[in-house]
Automatic annotation (TrEMBL), chain A:
This is NADH:quinone oxidoreductase/Mrp antiporter transmembrane domain-containing protein. It comes from Candidatus Mcinerneyibacterium aminivorans. Keywords: Cell membrane, Membrane, Oxidoreductase, Transmembrane, Transmembrane helix. It is a multi-pass membrane protein. Pfam families: Proton_antipo_M (PF00361). GO terms for biological process: ATP synthesis coupled electron transport. It comes from the Bacteria. The chain crosses the membrane at residues 6-21, 28-44, 72-89, 101-119, 125-142, 149-171, 198-218, 230-255, 275-293, 300-319, 331-350, 371-392, 404-424, 445-470, 502-524, 600-617.
TrEMBL record, chain B:
The keyword Zinc-finger does not apply. Residues 127-413 form the NADH:quinone oxidoreductase/Mrp antiporter transmembrane domain. The lineage of its organism: Bacteria, Candidatus Macinerneyibacteriota, Candidatus Mcinerneyibacteria, Candidatus Mcinerneyibacteriales, Candidatus Mcinerneyibacteriaceae. It comes from the Bacteria. This is NADH:quinone oxidoreductase/Mrp antiporter transmembrane domain-containing protein. Belongs to the CPA3 antiporters (TC 2.A.63) subunit D family.
Length: 618, 479
């Protein structure tokens, strides 16, 4: 089955899933999961690289390909969708528009296949746009402020899309075709300045979608307000579209990574890659700080995504073969860990109805699997060995160290250390500590939600121990595009400096964990205290009953730290001010051109006369 | 005789004369006359499209040969656009007779409508400047009747004043042209204008630009548009939104192509600037609106600006740059259906302000989905028709290195996407106010909406062949 058939299947199934969900939403969601599974199976079963066309349009045919460069992304997209769909079988119980949700997520699946499976830029753009409006409707389904969030998402996505379409047609003009292969073959004939323009348009579009500072403004609200299971898709896949674009344009426009291996004229002339590397560094730092300051778990993860977007961009712009592989791996890492984090926070929301850290606490006893998923995901996200996240960060650090860039190395390490701070906050505030009384009877989530989270956990550990499973397609991709591949075996990685053996790391950490567990079980004598006890010291505090959250120990968790950044200028506020100014100026325009009375109108006509004649004279 | 395009004008006009006579006999029977006339028109159009080739041909009237008598210009592409216009007129008419016949002065309204259809067909077909003036006046007079609604007379009054001003200027321009060129036939005028001094051309151009801006919704004479759209009946809004505005735009484009072909760079530059200003201002103002009809009105203004500026850019070099021109015509065609669908759908829901439309999709699911299709098409989302016209327009503009044009166009398009989807979001995801009365939508109305959305989806999945059928309207040569 070629990709074009799979896409048609997904399109047809979306309608069937909608109809089935109308009668029984659970059956519809199960059907959705099965559809995704079967489509994934067919893609895997077919195995060989292939190209296909969808020629329902007379002159415009959509080209798809299943090839070395997109194989890994296709599998990523499909597996994330399968996991989220599995999670949704129980997880969308409280949603208001279940059939529509299922219908739209199936369309999202279709657009993922289309974007990652595209063999030309127009196909990519069509499915990208499809994703944009479908996501808009999906985000709007979420929580209280989701409508505004969706509009902001839409606004930013449209900017990205229009930048991209401009770039696409510039390519079309320059090389006379928009297929990837055409671009590769005629790459040499494009002039330098045009290359620069095209590159900038695509990279800017990618940065908006990928959420790199200062273009990240849509992420905070879109992530926190969208429906929980869709947030996982949004951060797991849709945000990665941006980096897929940068990755693609990087493949065909060897700006950053290929430059360093095959020096060409472009390197010396193009300052962009350094500029973007520094932008990535800033993004890491700002994302990290902002994440530390959040009280809402989903907003926290949103800002952590800004920081990790910085890591991916840093790797892509940095240049070496190792960094490139690290960037692709980090996309996978972040997809998987963000998925795990959002699913577990979604599970908490499913049972408790809140994601505010200082309203929760002590849920480890009630939801052990959710806790485990969260724990594994954050360990991976923070890049602590022995999990998957460590592998990609190790690769990025290796290339940073080898090439020696102080600011970028500082930023990367700052992001790593800062991430301990922010990932720990929900861990301590949501799962550990004392449990508020109202959550004493909270149960673990239903079976299918557990199953989804379990798969994410297993994958994160598995890829951590055996990174070769993921690195193998990356290596073959590097070989195909003709750059020197990284050296890696199933569980070993070699850089110029050192060798990383994940099996050893895992064994050491496993042994350490078991040792600590033994010590804990033998010697620890925990005392159980009720919530708020340490504050009241026996006194009766009146607010304790009415507003318990202000005495929650996770309230103002990093107060000394956040005090440092109190006066920090906020990019979002700046944008907001600009938007308000713009909106009020539109009012002025309306009053001027479309006012009620005819009198003022005469002026307008006279002015037009004057202007038209003036154009002639000047 | 059946193969003459003049039938498209004569039949509705004849029906218009028939109405008062029939009215004396039976007050209800006048319902059926316009329907029969428009159906007949569509039938004639299908014949004409089959017979005529893609090259322009002249059809003389009254036996006078081309430069002297009044003549009509027709080819199969014009036929397609006329077909779409007449189809929308038919839809508006069916809706009117079904729903609004008893609400308004049925005699005047029916008469006005059928005369308007005749005038609109004339505007699209005629190849004569003075004749165009007559049809524009006729359409405007019929438009005054259609615009008038008991919700407010002021917009209609404003429309009368502005449109009269435009007509006067047009007449003045036509007289001046006749003075210098000695003919009123559009194609012969352009040949005779060659020796005229450039300063004279400037004055002439300014006259025509301002004159044509009132009907084609361009700045500076478009202040009537939002007010009329807001206050008129549903039928009226479809008539203005899809029928009259399209025909007027087409007439303007025809004048530009046939009369001002050749190197009037100044004229086309100013028109490009005016068009882009109209586009930007229209989108900006629409961004502030919280009433769907006003949104569609301002967006329609903006689209008119876009189409006119694209056309004038394509004409700038003295010849027609085909790719841009065709894309603009495609955009014109797509807007007919999308705007008609939105206006019809919103009219059927019965409410226009965001406040009252809140959450109405929960109660009227199917109608809301159809409106959504129209909106997604007009903002250019795949897989609907509007995506492709936007696509071809951007493609051709970039191919001709009009980067600034593209930048302005896309920047305004972002706003358009934003406010249209805000309206849709408001319909779907807000709490429904239970005090609001839900209007029943009849099967006929659903059928009309479905047929419109079918057109949109058909074009969306078959863009190239549809575009091919309407491309090269004026470049196929004249027989």
């Amino acid at each position: 089955m070629t990709i074009s058939y799979l896409i048609i299947t997904a399109g047809i199934m979306s309608a069937i899933i909608y109809l089935v969900s109308k009668f029984n939403w659970k059956a519809g969601t199960i059907l959705q999961t099965l559809t995704f599974l079967i489509i994934g199976y067919f893609l895997y079963h077919n195995g060989d690289y292939s190209s296909s066309q969808l020629a329902i349009f007379n002159n415009i045919s959509l080209n798809f390909t299943y090839s070395y460069f997109n194989e890994i992304f296709l599998y990523l997209g499909i597996s994330v969708m399968i996991i989220v769909s599995l999670f949704s079988i129980d997880g969308i119980k409280n949603y208001q528009y279940k059939p529509v949700y299922n219908f739209l997520t199936t369309l999202i699946f279709m657009s993922i296949l289309g974007v990652f499976g595209a063999a030309d830029f127009i196909t990519l753009f069509i499915f990208w746009e499809l994703m944009t409006w479908v996501s808009f409707f999906l985000i709007s389904m979420g929580k209280k402020y989701s409508k505004k969030a969706a509009l902001l998402f839409l606004f930013m996505s449209m900017i990205a899309a229009y930048l991209m379409i401009t770039g696409i047609f510039l390519i079309d003009n320059a090389v006379g075709g928009i297929t990837f292969s055409n671009l590769i073959n005629n790459y040499g004939s494009i002039s330098y300045s045009l290359k620069f323009k095209i590159l900038m348009l695509f990279v800017l579009a990618g940065l908006i979608k990928g959420g790199v500072y200062p273009l990240h403004i849509w992420m905070r609200t879109s992530y926190s307000e969208s429906p929980d299971s869709f947030t996982s898709i949004l951060s797991g896949i849709l945000m990665k579209f941006g980096f897929y674009l940068i990755y693609l344009i990087g493949l065909f426009f060897p700006v950053a990574f290929i430059l360093k291996n095959n020096p060409s004229k472009l390197i010396s002339e193009l300052p962009s890659s350094t500029f973007f590397a520094y932008l990535a560094g800033i993004s890491i730092i700002i994302g990290t700080i902002a994440a530390i300051l959040q009280n809402d778990a989903k907003k926290l993860i949103a800002f952590s995504s800004v920081s990790h977007a910085g890591y991916i961009l840093l790797a892509f712009t940095y240049g070496t073969s190792m960094a490139f592989a690290g960037g692709v791996t980090h996309i996978l890492v972040h997809a998987l860990t963000a998925l795990g984090m959002f699913l577990s926070i979604g599970a908490v929301y499913f049972r408790t109805g809140t994601t505010k850290i200082d309203e929760l606490g002590g849920l480890i006893k009630n939801m052990p699997l959710t806790f485990t998923t969260y724990l594994v995901s954050i360990i991976s996200l923070a890049g602590i060995p022995p999990l998957f996240g460590f592998v990609s960060k190790w690769m990025i650090y290796q290339s940073l160290i080898i090439n020696g860039s102080y600011f970028l190395a500082f930023a990367a390490f700052f992001g790593s250390i800062g991430s301990f701070m922010y990932v720990f906050r929900p861990l301590a505030g949501v799962f550990l500590g004392q449990r508020p009384k109202k959550f004493e009877n909270v149960k673990e989530v239903p079976f299918f939600m557990k199953a989804g989270m379990l798969i994410v956990t297993i994958l994160t550990v598995l890829f951590g121990v055996l990174p070769g499973l993921v690195l193998k397609p990356i290596i073959s991709m590097q070989q195909s595009i003709g750059i020197e591949p990284i050296k890696a075996s199933l569980y070993r990685l070699f850089s110029g400096l050192t060798t990383l053996d994940m099996l050893v790391v895992f064994t050491v950490f496993g042994a350490g964990f078991i040792l600590a567990l033994i010590i804990f079980l033998l010697f620890a004598k925990p005392t159980r205290v009720k919530q708020h006890e340490q504050y009241t010291a026996g006194e009766i505090v009146p607010e304790l009953q009415t507003q318990p959250s202000i005495y929650h120990y996770a309230k103002n968790y990093y107060k000394p730290f956040s005090r440092i950044f109190d006066k920090f200028p906020s990019m979002e506020k700046l944008y907001k001010k600009g938007a308000e100014y713009l909106s009020s100026s539109f009012g002025v325009i309306e009053e001027f051109f479309y006012e009620e009375s005819i009198n003022g109108y005469i002026w307008l006509i006279s002015i037009t006369f004057l202007v038209i004649i003036a154009i002639r004279w000047f | 005789m059946i193969n003459e395009p003049v039938l498209l004008i004569v039949i509705p006009l004849f029906a218009g004369f028939l109405i008062p006579i029939i009215y004396l006999i039976s007050k209800k029977a006048i319902k059926y006359i316009p329907i029969i006339a428009v159906f007949y028109n569509l039938f004639v159009l299908i014949r004409l499209i089959q017979i005529n080739s893609t090259s322009l041909s002249y059809f003389t009237t009254g036996g006078y040969k081309v430069p002297f008598g009044i003549n009509l210009i027709f080819n199969s592409q014009i036929g397609i656009i006329l077909f779409a216009i007449n189809l929308l007129a038919l839809i508006a008419l069916i809706f009117f007779l079904k729903k609004e016949f008893h609400l308004v002065n049925s005699f005047a309204y029916t008469l006005g409508f059928i005369i308007a259809i005749s005038a609109v067909n004339g505007m699209v077909l005629t190849g004569d400047l003075f004749n165009l003036f007559v049809f524009m006046e006729l359409a405007a007079i019929a438009g005054y009747i259609i615009a008038t609604h008991k919700r407010g007379y002021y917009p209609s009054f404003l429309y009368v004043i502005i449109s009269t001003f435009g007509s006067l200027l047009f007449l003045l321009g036509t007289i001046t042209i006749y003075n210098v060129s000695g003919t009123l036939n559009m194609a012969s005028v352009s040949e005779n204008l060659v020796d005229v001094s450039p300063h004279f051309i400037v004055v002439l151009s300014v006259m025509f630009i301002v004159a044509l801006s009132s009907e084609s919704e361009l700045l500076p004479l478009n202040a009537w548009v939002p007010k009329v759209y807001e206050k008129t009946s549903i039928t009226g809004s479809i008539f203005f939104g899809s029928v009259l505005s399209t025909a007027a735009l087409f007439a303007v484009i025809k004048v530009l192509v046939l009369v001002f072909k050749g190197g009037y760079e100044y004229l086309f530059n100013s028109l490009t600037i005016i068009g882009l200003a109209t586009l930007l201002i229209g989108e900006f103002v629409a961004f502030k609106q919280r009433n769907v009809r006003k949104i569609v009105a301002y967006s329609s203004i903006a689209q008119a600006g876009l189409i006119i500026s694209a056309v004038s850019v394509s004409l700038k070099n003295g010849t027609i740059t085909d790719s841009i021109f065709n894309a603009a015509m495609f955009q014109l065609l797509n807007n007919i259906f999308a705007k008609g669908l939105i206006l019809l759908g919103v009219g059927l829901l019965g409410y226009y302000s965001f406040e009252k439309l809140k959450g109405i999709a929960g109660k009227k699911k199917f109608a809301s989905i159809l409106i959504t299709i129209g909106v997604l098409s007009i903002i250019g989302m795949p897989p609907f028709a509007g995506f492709w016209s936007k696509f071809f327009l951007i493609k051709s503009l970039i191919a001709n290195k009009m980067i600034i044009f593209v930048a302005i166009f896309l920047a305004s398009a972002i706003f358009e996407v934003y406010y249209y989807l805000r309206f849709i979001q408001n319909m779907y995801y807000e709490e429904f106010d239970s005090k609001i009365k839900i209007n029943q939508i009849s099967a006929v109305s659903y059928f009309l909406m479905i047929s419109l959305s079918f057109m949109i989806i058909y074009i969306g999945f078959n863009p190239s062949s549809v575009m091919k059928t309407i491309s090269d309207i004026f470049t196929g040569g004249i027989i």
